[in-house]
Amino acid sequence: MTAPRVPVIALTGFLGAGKTTVLNSILRAPGARFGVVVNDFGAINVDAALITGQIDEAASIAGGCLCCMEDDDELDRALETLSEPRLRLDAILLEASGVAEPLAVSRRVRLTAAERTRPGGVIEVVDSLAYFDTVDRPGPRGGRGEPPLRFAAASLVVLTRTAMLAEQERLRAIGEISARIRLRNEHVPILEAPHGRIDPALVTDVAQAEDPPDQLPIAAVTRQACAERDHHDHLHADAVTVRAPGPVDPGAVLDLFESPPPGVYRLKGTITVRTPRGARHYVLHLVGQHIHVASRPTGGEDGLVAIGMHLDAEQVRATLAAALRTEGSPSSAGMRRLVRRRRLSE
Q1: Which residues, 6+ apart, have CB-to-CB distance to 299 below 8 Å?
Q2: Which CATH number fits domain 238-345: 3.10.20.30, 3.40.640.10, 3.30.1220.10, 1.10.10.10?
Q3: 36 Cβ neighbours under 8 A, 6+ residues apart
Q4: What contacts 19, CB < 8 A, 6 or more positions away?
Q5: Quick one: how far is CA 40 from the chain centroid?
Q6: d(CA 30, CA 220)
Q7: What is residue 237's DSSP assignment?
Q8: In a structure prediction context, what are the per-residue pLDDT tens digits for the chain, which is 346 residues long?
């Protein structure tokens, strides 16, 4: 059985939106192992110097924008190196330059030649103070036309620097920016991060509650230093877990993944399906609208986990339980859908 593919999570956003701050907040997750690719537009990789001592493996692409480099395989090489099984990374974080187009970045990640990776979502970081002066400026004749195309690629939008606005102005800015984003991407989760920090659980699994004893506690030191400098904390993500009572109908599970409950950003799980040739086991991931399905070895407990912000826990739990209900034999149509999803994920 091949090793699980490493998710590649892209951080995009206009120049100065706060991507490095968001990246650093993710890197402070205890127990998680990250690889990082930093794409700084310039000969000197300034952003890489800002990310200090928190990375298990790193690579940088300087001197150009990765979304418009022609015939350049630097990103492929970086992802191939960072996805080596011996590194045991939980995720690879790709911080794109401020001039990169998210749709092009997303496409590069999907079509990468690094076969041990899979798309892990696109986090678009938006500066709430400068949004209408940079990303979404009026047309030459005044007024606003179509909202920026960049939001079509986003699986999560993070609004930063809202702490610098008075309450009424903050609410107005969030409402106006969110309305523009929704015109382009109706269902994308929009998260306010006043100080640029988000819960790492939104984007990747945290291996354990504390740092491993055999590693230098660099992340712990960083967390402590940040806590002493700034007492403001991020909002914590909600998580709902439901265990599977036995083999499931893959059609019902895929229905859930294709139409998750409101507020759910990530959905993951392991399931067993009974077939005429015996039991088959699968692992599924949903980030935004991207579904990844892979075969898995036997063993372990089956179930689903939904992660998001401000979830109605009881409603989400009931929805997950309904999808895992075992009633008779799985439909052949559901099995075909699952197999097709797995092949598309290869």
Answers
A1: none
A2: 3.30.1220.10
A3: 23, 27, 51, 55, 57, 58, 59, 92, 93, 94, 95
A4: 11, 12, 13, 47, 95, 96, 98, 125
A5: 20
A6: 7
A7: P
A8: 567 889 999 999 988 888 888 888 887 776 778 888 877 644 444 444 445 444 445 555 444 444 444 445 788 888 898 888 888 888 888 888 777 888 988 998 988 999 999 999 999 999 999 898 888 887 666 667 888 999 999 999 999 999 888 999 999 999 999 999 999 999 888 999 888 888 888 877 654 344 443 333 334 444 444 444 444 455 677 888 999 988 999 999 999 999 999 888 888 888 999 887 888 899 999 887 788 998 887 767 889 988 888 889 999 999 999 999 876 666 788 888 998 998 888 7
Alpha carbon of 333 to those of 84, 251, 282, 330, 336: distances in Å?
A: 36, 7, 17, 9, 5
Inter-residue contact 89 to 29 (CB < 8 Å): no
Domain residue spans in the chain? 6-229, 238-345
Q: Can you tell me whether residue 186 is helix, strand or coil?
A: coil
- How far apart, in whole angstroms, are the C-alpha atoms of residue 214 and residue 29? 16
Model's pTM, two decimal places? 0.77
What is the C-alpha to C-alpha distance for residues 122 and 100, in angstroms, rounded to an integer? 12
What's the angle, vertex CA 313, arms to CA 307 and CA 318, rounded to 5?
100
Q: Is 40 within 8 Å of 97 (Cβ atoms)?
A: yes
Same fold, 6-229 and 238-345: no
What's the CATH code, domain 6-229? 3.40.50.300
Q: Quick one: angle between helices 313-323 and 250-258, nearest 10?
A: 140
- C-alpha distance from residue 10 to each of 25, 98, 161, 237 (Å): 14, 12, 20, 19
